[in-house]
Every structure is written in C-alpha cells, then in structure tokens.
Structure prediction request, 235 residues.
Amino acid sequence: MIDRAQLKSETQALGLALSDLQLEMFDAYAEMLVETNKKFNLTAIKNPDEIVTKHFVDSLTVFTAVDIPAESSVIDIGTGAGFPGLPMLIYDSSLNITLLDSTGKKLDFVQNVADELGLRARVVHGRAEEFGRGEYREKFDFAVSRAVASLNVLCEYCLPFVRQGGAFIALKGSKAEDELSHSRTAVKTLGGKFICAKELMLADEQTRNLVIIEKAAPTPPKYPRASAQISKKPL
Ligand code: SAH
Prediction:
C-alpha cells in the first residue's frame, strides 16, 4: 500500500529509525485507513504518499519536540483516525497511550487498528472539556493534539490532563506565531508555561510548528469550563 522506503527515509530525516516490523505496521494501518474511508469519512487524505507524510511522519514529529521516555503516559485529544497517538504507539509500544475523541465511529476504527496491530491503547469516547474534570485530570506526563482547535481553546482542553512537570505538545501548521500570541493568557491561566515552538519542514515542503507548553502549576478548579463558555468566551 505505502512506499516503505519513503516512510523510512522521511522518518530518518527526523532522526528516527523504524524497524521492518514497524514499517509493516504502518502499511497495515494505511490499508485499513483507505478501506474504512470508503465506508465513512475518516480523513480527507487518501493518497498513500500523502498518508505517509501528512499523517505518519507528521505524527512522529512529536518525538523531535521533547524527550518522551519509555512508558510515559500520553493522552491524544481529538485523535480522529488516530493522529498523532497511534503512530506514536507504533514507534514506541511501551507508551501508555489514551486516545480520546467525541466521535464514536472514529474510535471504533482506532480500536480496530490497535487490535489488528497488537498494540495496547486505551480508547475513550467523550469530550475533552468533560473528561478534563474527572478521573483523568492531571494524570498524564504528556498531552498531544493535532488539528482540533485554535491554540487558546486547545490549552483549555489539554492542559487540565497534564501533571505538574509534564507538557502539552500541540502539532500546528505554519501560522503558529499568530496563535501563540493569542494564547498567552490561556497558557498562564491554566497553569502552563510556554516553552518554545519548534519549526520544521516535511517532504511536502510545508512548515510545521511543534508548540511545547510545560505544566508549571495546577489548573485552577474552574477549568475546563463547559463547551458553550469555552467557545463563547475563549481565554
Ligand atoms: N487529530 C486528528 C483528527 C483531527 S479532526 C488528526 O490530526 O488527523 C478533529 C477531531 O477532534 C475530530 O475527530 C473530533 O471528533 C475531535 N474533537 C473536536 N472537539 C473535541 C472535544 N472537545 N473533545 C474531544 N474530541 C474532540
């Protein structure tokens, strides 16, 4: 299905090595993605070359942002068809990954992929702003998220899950500077500390930014607020 040499060289360019088994797992994942996409809309990216760069390699860029030790607990907020969480788990199967999304159908797909590849992931159906008040609050070493909301809103979804000393990593496109300047209040209010944005370019010649926000203090109990308030009065 995918060009394994392409996946291997594009990940090598990030300084990451994939074994033959991992390449095979990505191939099976792509196959399931393309097949399931025929039945319902999982992703707009359907071409195998694009799946490699824009889904798989893009997801793996997280590992170039911060050191993610083996067995770390990671929550992927709004994982959709599994990005970036599932590629992260293929790369390091020791990670304790929780994949959260509000769309059950997408999670069925994600669970199928994990089962098919023999990977252990916790799949959770719900909204970030509700689960961020419950048992998962401040329980994770890392929260990650891609293509879910603007950075200020995303901070309110994601930072409540991160333990003090952990970090939230947002995978963003080329316009991260604008989003960053509009997120300073949100970061501070939610107990975050903005560390840096790391810019990189992938094989599609489009710029990515990895925004790293450290959890410096507990999130005040009033956050995350209800969905309506978050959208009406974003921090
Ligand atoms: N991260 C994936 C999917 C992006 S699409 C990728 O990069 O390809 C955005 C996803 O976020 C959708 O699957 C949607 O169901 C989910 N989502 C949006 N708002 C959410 C919320 N508040 N809580 C949980 N999931 C949410």
